[in-house]
């Protein structure tokens, strides 16, 4: 008997599967010289159908028997179906006659089973195959809401046996992650999604790239011990992520970039000339600290400032969370406008480039900002670096006096005046406004102003004052007074100074000596209404109101006498006023007379003075 087997792809899927079949055909030949009866075919690996009642000597039958073997996984894993049938019959005497089958079309390339050299061998084509998908998920390890070095990508793997053979010793390797897990075997068509996991620890390079590209390799052995491998694919590919042409099937996990930069700017005043006061030409030294506050490397960092030239840089690169406080500096020269303002307000601008070539920038902040309640706080620029410049407003006043001898008699008289001139100087480092002068001496009238004064400016023409001398001043022998000048700084600070009469070194009062209490007799009287020498004038007599004046003619007759002579309503005007006298209504004749003056001094002593008096009209 011969037995021929043919593989049949039952489901027509083009691959040998469990459930496919091997169809067998049998050819039975009576090779003896007697008729055989009750011929049967049996097979321990197939279901034989058919029967044959008899077969004549030398006859052949190839249609009576068929058989079907349903392919098992073991068959596929073996790669072959080995099969042996047995034909049996009876000779005419009833004795059994039998034969084991032979393969009429033996497979020349198939391995022969030594235990079954005549087995019919049907090759089952093996198609070992494996597939793996790798899905990555970013995990914020420290839960700070931003991707950092040390965060991870967790990978989940699904391994599928996509072939028709059992696979064994399955492993997954990854050049960019640590894979854990193992799988001893995986049946054809089976899937495993729990055995393997992997973790990739995120690096700065990953964050700078914005993505983690990763490829795993699944490998196993087919039944013959040959390797079966497959590179992973991403089951949930990122639709917006750029694909690496060199790794089209890579699993891509997007790492969210958060580029950010911050700069602080600190200003320190420097007293260039060491005079202890802020002046034009002093400087402010600026220091800058640039910090990468994001999670990606920033490159080509530069600083600009609208009011000062920044030196240093550009800074080639700055790692996340790193700071640089040495690269950039600047020096600003103070102007008078700055001093007037009381501070320099300044804002710098930092700019760099993120790994994608996009600009990253920030306006500077003051590391020690002013409180919003501070008068110098600027709400329109809350982030400005504010360097306070100390204002030192100052003012000085010199007051000089000139006595005005109205009648040019050399004697101070009540009603004559003193003229005051003032020189005001701005001695501070800021301009002054609303500069005014006040003199507390009653009767002094200051005119002029208010004025403004620039730094260092002096004014000696705006302000003047006039004072009318009183008898009390004459009695005192001098007029002493001190004026006060006030002004206001740009920040509203009021400054003042009491006057000095020379160089403002000691703020001493201005003292005007009045020579008005020295008796000075003017012994010529010409009462002719020409306004000159109309009365007998005794200078200084106002200081001694307790007095008596007597005038005698040349014969010794008293022609004028009065107590309390005062050069005013009690004064000799060429008319008689004595006890024994000529007609009072008529003027005395021109001629030489004799006066006698007696007056009491403040100490109670009495002084006398006498002499000739000349009367002429």
UniProtKB/TrEMBL annotation:
Region (Disordered): 352-375
Pfam families found in the cross-reference section: CHU_C, DUF7507
Coiled-coil blocks: none
Top-level taxon of the source organism: Bacteria
Domain DUF7507 positions: 11-99, 127-230, 258-362, 392-497
InterPro entries membership: Chlamydia_OmcB, DUF11_rpt, DUF7507, Ig-like_fold, T9SS_type_B
PANTHER family reported for this sequence: LARGE CYSTEINE-RICH PERIPLASMIC PROTEIN OMCB (PTHR34819)
NCBIfam families documented for this protein: B_ant_repeat, Bac_Flav_CTERM
Protein name, per record: Gliding motility-associated C-terminal domain-containing protein
Organism: Flavobacterium qiangtangense
């Amino acid at each position: 008997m011969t037995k021929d087997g043919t593989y049949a792809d039952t489901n027509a899927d083009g691959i040998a599967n469990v459930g496919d079949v091997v169809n067998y055909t049998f050819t039975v030949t009576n090779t003896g010289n007697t008729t055989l009866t009750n011929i049967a075919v049996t097979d321990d690996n197939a279901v034989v159908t058919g029967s044959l009642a008899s077969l004549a000597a030398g006859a052949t039958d190839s249609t009576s028997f068929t058989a079907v073997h349903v392919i098992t996984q073991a068959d596929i894993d073996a790669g072959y179906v080995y099969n042996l049938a047995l034909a049996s019959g009876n000779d005419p005497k009833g004795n059994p006659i039998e034969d084991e089958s032979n393969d009429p079309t033996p497979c020349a390339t198939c391995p022969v089973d030594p235990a079954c050299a005549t087995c019919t061998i049907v090759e089952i084509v093996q198609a070992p195959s494996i597939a793996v998908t790798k899905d990555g998920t970013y995990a914020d390890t420290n839960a700070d809401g931003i991707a950092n070095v040390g965060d991870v990508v967790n990978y989940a793997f699904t391994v599928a046996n996509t072939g028709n053979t059992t696979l064994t010793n399955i492993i997954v390797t990854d050049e960019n992650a640590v894979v854990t897990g193992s799988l001893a075997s995986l049946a054809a068509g089976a899937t495993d999604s729990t055995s393997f996991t992997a973790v990739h620890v995120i690096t700065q390079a990953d964050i700078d790239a914005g993505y983690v590209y990763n490829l795993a390799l699944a490998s196993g052995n087919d039944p013959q011990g040959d390797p079966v491998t497959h590179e992973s694919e991403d089951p949930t590919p990122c639709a917006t992520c750029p694909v690496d042409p060199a790794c089209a099937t890579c699993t891509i996990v997007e790492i969210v970039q958060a580029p950010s930069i911050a700069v602080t700017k600190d200003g320190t005043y420097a007293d260039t000339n060491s005079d202890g006061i802020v002046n034009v030409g002093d400087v402010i030294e600026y220091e800058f600290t640039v910090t990468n506050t994001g999670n990606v490397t920033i490159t080509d960092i530069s600083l600009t400032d609208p009011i000062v030239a920044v030196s240093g840089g550009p800074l080639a690169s700055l790692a996340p969370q790193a700071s640089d406080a040495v690269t950039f500096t600047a020096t600003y020269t103070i102007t008078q406008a700055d001093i007037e303002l009381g501070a320099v307000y300044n804002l710098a601008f930092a700019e760099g480039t993120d790994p994608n070539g996009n600009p990253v920038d920030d306006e500077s902040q003051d590391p020690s900002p002013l409180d919003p309640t501070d008068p110098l706080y600027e709400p329109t620029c809350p982030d400005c670096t504010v360097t306070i410049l100390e204002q030192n407003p100052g003012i000085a006043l010199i007051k000089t006096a000139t006595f005005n001898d109205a009648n040019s008699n050399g004697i101070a008289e009540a009603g004559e005046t003193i003229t005051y001139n003032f020189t005001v100087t701005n001695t501070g480092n800021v301009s002054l406004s609303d500069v005014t002068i006040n003199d507390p001496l009653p009767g002094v009238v200051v005119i002029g102003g208010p004025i403004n004064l620039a730094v260092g400016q002096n004014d000696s023409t705006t302000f003047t004052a006039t004072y009318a001398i009183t008898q009390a001043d004459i009695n005192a022998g001098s007029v002493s007074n001190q004026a006060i000048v006030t002004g206001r700084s740009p920040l509203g600070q009021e400054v003042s100074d009491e006057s000095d009469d020379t160089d403002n070194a000691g703020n001493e009062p201005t003292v005007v000596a009045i020579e008005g209490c020295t008796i000075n007799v003017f012994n010529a009287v010409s009462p002719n209404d020409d306004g000159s020498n109309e009365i007998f004038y005794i200078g200084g007599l106002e200081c001694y109101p307790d007095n008596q004046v007597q005038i005698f003619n040349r014969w010794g007759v008293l022609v004028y006498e009065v107590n309390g002579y005062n050069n005013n309503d009690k004064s000799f005007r060429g008319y008689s006023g004595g006890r024994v006298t000529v007609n009072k209504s008529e003027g005395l004749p021109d001629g030489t007379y004799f006066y006698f003056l007696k007056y009491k001094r403040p100490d109670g002593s009495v002084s006398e003075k006498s002499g000739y008096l000349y009367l002429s009209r």
